[in-house]
Design goal:
It is built from nine helices and seven strands. The chain has about 210 residues and is α/β, with parallel strands linked by helices. A seven-stranded mixed sheet has the order 2-1-5-4-3-6-7, with helices on both faces. The longest helix is centred in the last third of the chain and has 23 residues. It holds the Pfam family Thioredoxin_8. One of its GO terms (biological process) is photoreceptor cell maintenance. This is NXNL1 protein.
């Protein structure tokens, strides 16, 4: 999913920190269903729907409701009239939300790519960027958090319980240089084992 945002910048909600490196985006979006929320704080329909989406997201990701957060991410793509309006809106939303920075032309690219003609709109994407639902507003209103299970199955997400049972070296989500770092780690480990063997035999290292 991070490939959708290659070369782009996202903002972390509240802290307003940039989330722009490959590693950061991968950590935030990999192996998750992604919601692109197109909306405006001044839109009456958005004002009615946004609290529902907030509740929907919290019930799937907040530890108050669930023991383990669902594999779900959300990026806010605003049609707000100014940056302060967007910032004020996001402050009332969950901290885990990400956002396209105000004034970024990438917002228009996303609208065209996913044929968003009106707001509110919630585009549901698989981790590879394929569309699961073109606009899930009605589905979320009708079904609430239960619709996530359908999306999860459609996205064919890897169960995190399975990931946790595996060797972290096999699935660790790092930057593009990670294979090189893992190789160095393995070489270092072999060297360390060899050194211990030499010490036990009472021989000096070469």
């Amino acid at each position: 999913m991070a490939s959708l945002f290659t070369g782009k910048v996202l903002m972390a909600n509240r802290e307003e920190d940039k989330v722009e490196t490959e590693r950061e985006l991968t950590r935030a979006l990999e192996n998750k269903v992604l919601l692109l929320y197109f909306a405006s704080a001044r839109c009456p329909r958005c004002q009615k729907f946004s609290p529902l989406l907030k509740e929907f997201f919290l019930r799937l990701t907040d530890e108050f409701y669930v023991e383990r957060a669902s594999q779900l991410a959300l990026v806010y793509v605003s049609r707000d009239e100014n940056e302060e309006e967007q910032r004020d809106f996001l402050r009332s939303m969950p901290k885990r939300w990400l956002a396209v920075p105000f004034g970024d032309d990438f917002k228009r690219e996303l609208e065209l790519r996913f044929a968003v003609a009106e707001v509110p709109a919630v585009v549901v994407l698989k981790p590879n960027g394929d569309v699961i639902v073109g606009n899930a507003v009605e589905e979320i209103q009708r079904m609430g958090p239960t619709c996530f299970q359908n999306w999860r199955e459609a996205a064919e997400l890897v169960d995190r319980n399975f990931l946790l049972a595996e060797d972290p070296e096999d699935w660790s989500r790092r930057s593009i240089t990670d294979p090189l770092r893992r190789l160095k780690y393995k070489l270092d480990k072999k060297k360390e084992v060899k050194s211990k063997e030499w010490e036990e035999e009472g021989e000096e290292l070469p």
